[in-house]
């Protein structure tokens, strides 16, 4: 028992305290390393065990003899004379290696069960493949696929992200986070809305197009609590905090309903729905809206309709009242000329056929449409319009006097 061993134990205890590792863990790692060092010595036993007294720091090596079943049949003290020097050389390397391993395990254990949680990090590095976030003890990986388009991650910016996966690697835990996951919106509302964190209000469904728009359907377990009002907050203060974190992404908060008709109507807000027809066989919901509400219900590039479909789980087919009337009148399959009205060089409106060809002025288009309408009307007799017009034309072979004479013979005519 020497003072050196006491100093060794004191240093070991300080390391364990600083790194948050138990002394027993370090002693076990050192004992295993000393066994490997002992077996490299000449005339060492094939089997050996190293013991370290946690009170005095004394290190002993015991050689062992095993039988065929692996049981110890004989054991003796085989500590080399200069084993203290070997122990000192081995201790530093082993302890540092073990500290790194334990730190990696501790970091992994800290985040292993946190998939679906939200973390706050500082942007450290950004390139075309990924962005690194400093979470304090570890770094999180934000891949390009999990980044919001057009969102910039400047160095030093504080950012909230959603944990989608925690991987255990040889270099330590790898935490993969996302800024596009719908769960990020849910977690942000949990931070801002006490009613959600307490369980009074629930987010039953969410649909998101990252960077543009999100719809969430909320439900209250308390009849006296308005779920939409709780999430929006006074003058929109709560939902504004979430919007600011998402860099201006628009958020629609709608009331959840067990009735699919009500849920579909709510999901298409701000458009007003006149009627919803459900086809449970195909899972399609036909939504009827006023003509002036059609574009609002569909949304820019169909965004409102897509989010409503994801939120409700129904395929949504939106039709205006005029379209519905045409279908019911049997005009749905009628073919119409395809094209568009454009301005020519003079600024006049002309019809440009979709299949190409000569452009038609507005006057010619009206005349052509009128002619097509006349040819489609059934005639009272078999004579064509051109044939009916023929008698009114005077032939050059007929004398004009005969026509005059005929007129004079007409009853009731006066000269």
TrEMBL record:
Record's compositionally biased regions (Low complexity): 378-394
Region feature (Disordered): 323-415
Keywords of this entry: Cytoplasm, RNA-binding, Transcription, Transcription antitermination, Transcription regulation, Transcription termination
One of the GO biological process terms: DNA-templated transcription termination
Keyword Zinc-finger on entry: no
Gene Ontology MF annotations: DNA-binding transcription factor activity; RNA binding
Family matches, as InterPro entries: KH_dom-like_a/b, KH_NusA_2nd, KH_sf_prok-type, NA-bd_OB-fold, NusA_N_sf, S1_domain, TF_NusA, TF_NusA_bacterial
PANTHER family the UniProt entry points to: TRANSCRIPTION TERMINATION FACTOR NUSA, TRANSCRIPTION TERMINATION_ANTITERMINATION PROTEIN NUSA
HAMAP family the UniProt entry points to: NusA_B (MF_00945_B)
NCBIfam families xrefs: NusA
Protein name (record): Unannotated protein
The organism of origin for this protein: freshwater metagenome
